[in-house]
Amino acid sequence: MAAQIYSGEKYASRRREISANLAKRPEFHDSKPLPFMTREEKILESSRKLTLISKHMNEIIDPSDKRELYHLNCEVLGIEGNPMALHGDMFIPALTAQASDEQQEKWLSRALRREIIGTYAQTELGHGTNLRKLETIATYDVDTQEFVLHTPQITALKWWPGNLGKSSNYAVVVALMIIKGKNYGPQTFMVPLRDEKTHQPLKGITIGDIGPKLAYNIVDNGFLGFDHYRIPRTNLLMRHTRVEPDGTFVKPPHAKINYSAMVHVRSYMITGQAIMLAYALTIATRYSSVRRQGQIDTTQPEVKVLEYQTQQHRLFPSIARAYAFVFAGAETVRLYERVLQEVETGNVSLMADLHALTSGLKSVVTHQTAQGIEQARMACGGHGYSQASYISEIFGVAVGGCTYEGENLVMLQQLARYLVKSAGLVQAGQSSKLGPLVAYLGAKSDSTSLIDRTPTPGFAEYVKTFQHIARKQTLKAAQKLFGFMEKGDTREVAWNKSTVELNRASRLHTRLYIVEAFVRRVEEVADPRLKEVLTDLLRLHVNYELLDVAAYALEDGFLSSSQLDYIREQLYFYLAKIRPNAVSLVDSWEFSDRELRSVLGRRDGNVYENLFAWAKASPLNKTDVLPSVDKYLKPLMESARASKL
Ligand SMILES: CCCCC/C=C\C/C=C\C/C=C\CCC(=O)SCCNC(=O)CCNC(=O)[C@H](O)C(C)(C)COP(=O)(O)OP(=O)(O)OC[C@H]1O[C@@H](n2cnc3c(N)ncnc32)[C@H](O)[C@@H]1OP(=O)(O)O
Ligand SMILES: Cc1cc2nc3c(=O)[nH]c(=O)nc-3n(C[C@H](O)[C@H](O)[C@H](O)COP(=O)(O)OP(=O)(O)OC[C@H]3O[C@@H](n4cnc5c(N)ncnc54)[C@H](O)[C@@H]3O)c2cc1C
C-alpha cells in the first residue's frame, strides 16, 4: 500500500531506508519535544539540524531527488518550517523557471550549493491577492542601467515572506516595473538583502520578523522596505521577460509566466496537505484503537472508541480523502513538470489548464484537510487538546494553506473564470473545443442517476452523478453571470453578484476531479488484495462525498430520496467494512514516530505511560514550586489568611 501512496515501490522503500538510516543518527533527532521549546530555541535547533543535513545529506539521500529531500526534511526538520524552507519551496523554483541561463549560472548554482539563502518576497502589508496593485516600485534608470527599488508608503512594505525576516540574504522580489513613466505590472527581481559576510542588512534595506503566528513559527516570516535601493538592470529575471539597456521591454510568451513559483507550490502542496491530513489521522486512528471508553454490549468490557459508528464516521471519510488527495497530488506534480518542460520550448498552451486545476485543488484540499485535522483532534477527546498529541500544530500549519499561495475563495474564482469560458463554449454549441478537464460540461445528462438502479452500481454511475451536479451548477452559475450582464451590469459587477454560485461550481468541479483521480488510481491496481481494500475506501469516499453534495441532485430529481437512502446505507456498510483495516490504512503511510512527533500517535500504543512521561518532562515540572508562586501566589494567600485573622 505504501507503494500506492508514494507512487511506486522505489520511493516507498527509499523512504524506509532513509528513516532507518536516521534512526541510527541521534544527532538528527529533536533534542527535546518541540512544544517544550521557545520560538528562539526552535529556530536554533532547526538551524543546527539544517547544518547537519547540508553536511551529511549525500550519505543519506540522493540530493537530486526532490522527494527524498522532502522525506529527509519531514523526518529531521518537521512541519514547523526551517530557516531555508522558502529557499527550497520558492526561491530555487523561481530562479529555475524565471532566471536566464546566465543568471542561473550566477545565482542558481550558488543557491543550490547553499552559499546564499533566499526567499520569495511578493506580498505586502496592504496587498497580497491583487498583484496588479502591489506598491513596491522598481523604476528603471536608463542612465545608470539600474532599477531603483522603493517602498513609497507603509502599505508597500513586503510583509509575510517566509524566512525573509532573519535568515535570507537574498530574495526574489516582486515589484511593479516602471520604465519611462509606464507601468509594466508585477515583475521579478533578484535582490541582495544582507551583506554576505556579516549578514547585516545592506544600506537602503529595512528588514525584520513579523512576530509569532498561529503556527509555523520556526519560519521567520518577515517585513522588508526599500529606500531608493539600486540593483543592476540584469537583476530583472530575464528568462522570458527582458528589458534592454535603453529601456525597451520585451514581452514574455505568456502574461502570467512570472507567476510560476506560485504555481509550483500550488502543484506540490496538494501532496503536502495529504501528508499532514494523514499525520493527524494516523494519530487519531491509532489512539482510537487503544482508548477504551463505554460499552456497546453491557455484558462486555469497555470498547475501543474506534468501534463507535460516530468515531468511524468522524475519521474514515478523512482517511479516504487523504488517499484521494495524494493520488490527485501525484497527477498535479506530473502536469506541473510537463508544463515546465513545455514552457522551455515556448509552448504555453497548458498553462491555463494547470492554473485552473491547481487553483481549485489547492482551495478544496486545504479546506477539507483543515476540517479533517480538526475532527481528528476532537476524536482524541481531552488528550487531543494537549500539545502532546501534536495535532494542534499540524492543524495550524495545514490551515495556513487556505491562505498562502492565494486565498482560497479568490483561487476558486480563478477556476471559475475557466469554467465560465467553458460554459460559454457549450452555450455557443462549440463543445468540441472543450479541454479534457471540462469535456463533461458538453455532454448530456441521463434523466436520472443509475445509482441503485443496477445490481451493483459501478463507479461510473457515481462519476456520472458528480458530473451531472458539477455541470448543472457550472451552467447555472454562468447563466446567472450572463443574465446580470444582459441586464446591463458590467462584467465585474455581474461577477461579484455571482461569485458564491461560481465558487460552488468550482468546488463541485474540483470534487469531481478528486473522485476521478481516485477511480483512475484504483483501476490501475493489479494486486487483488490491495485492490479490494482500496475499492472499499473508494466506495466509502464516493458515498460520503455524494451525500455531502446531494442537495444539488435532489433539487432537479436526478437523485431520488430512495437513492439517497441507498447511498446512506452504503456509507454505513463501508464504515463497518473498513474498520478492521483502519489502523493498517493509516500505518501504510509509514510515518516514523520521529516524523509524527506525537505522544498519542506512537506506534507502540503505550499512550498512558508515554503521556505521563511527557508531562513529567514539561519545563514547569522542573521545580516543585514556581517563582510565580513564591512571588505572587504565596503572598496573596498569606495576606488573605492574615486578613481573616
Ligand atoms: C516543494 C514542496 C512545496 C510544499 C509546500 C508546503 C508547504 C509550504 C509552506 C509554507 C508556505 C510557502 C509558501 C507560501 C508563499 C506565498 O504565499 S507566495 C504569495 C502567493 N500569493 C498569491 O498566491 C497571490 C494570489 N493572487 C494571484 O495569484 C493573482 O493576483 C490572481 C488572483 C491570479 C489575479 O492575477 P491578475 O494578474 O490580476 O490576473 P487576472 O485576474 O486579471 O487574470 C488574467 C488572466 O490570467 C490568468 N492567470 C492568472 N494567474 C495565472 C497563472 N499562474 N497561470 C496561468 N494563467 C493565469 C487568469 O486566469 C486570467 O485568465 P483569463 O483567461 O483572462 O480568465
Ligand atoms: C503562513 C503564510 C506564509 C506566507 N508566505 C509568503 C511568502 O513566502 N511570500 C509571500 O510573498 N507571501 C506569503 N504569504 C502571504 C500570502 O500569500 C497572502 O496572505 C495570501 O495570498 C492572501 O492575500 P491577502 O493576505 O492579501 O488576503 P486578502 O486578499 O486581503 O484577503 C482578505 C479577504 O478578502 C477576500 N478577497 C480578496 N480579494 C477578493 C476578490 N477579488 N474577490 C473576493 N474576495 C476577495 C478574501 O477572500 C479574504 O476573505 C504567506 C501567508 C501565510 C499565512
CATH architecture of the largest domain: Up-down Bundle
Q: How many domain modules?
A: 3
- Any ligands, ions or cofactors bound here, and which? ligand LLIQVSAO, flavin-adenine dinucleotide
The helix fraction, in percent, is 40-55%
Contiguous runs where pLDDT drops below 50 for at least 5 residues: none
Radius of gyration, whole Å: 27 Å
Would you count the extended β strands for me? 11
Overall mean confidence score, pLDDT: 97
* N- and C-termini, Cα separation: 72 Å
Sheet of most strands: 6 strands, mixed
Protein name: Acyl-coenzyme A oxidase
Cofactor: FAD
Organism: Caenorhabditis japonica
Pfam families: ACOX (PF01756), ACOX_C_alpha1 (PF22924), Acyl-CoA_ox_N (PF14749)
How would you describe this protein?
Strand 2 and strand 3 form a beta hairpin. 54% of the residues lie in helices and 9% in strands. The model has no long low-confidence stretch (mean pLDDT 97). Strands 1, 2, 3, 5, 6 and 9 form a six-stranded mixed sheet that branches. A three-stranded antiparallel sheet has the order 4-8-7, with no helix packed on it. With 645 residues, it is an alpha+beta fold. It is globular, with a radius of gyration of 27 Å. The chain is built from 20 helices and eleven strands. The N and C termini lie far apart (72 Å). The structure holds ligand LLIQVSAO and flavin-adenine dinucleotide. Flavin-adenine dinucleotide binds next to strand 1 and helix 12.
Features:
alpha+beta; Butyryl-Coa Dehydrogenase, subunit A, domain 1; Butyryl-CoA Dehydrogenase, subunit A, domain 2; Butyryl-CoA Dehydrogenase, subunit A, domain 3; six-stranded mixed beta sheet; three-stranded antiparallel beta sheet; 11 strands; binds flavin-adenine dinucleotide
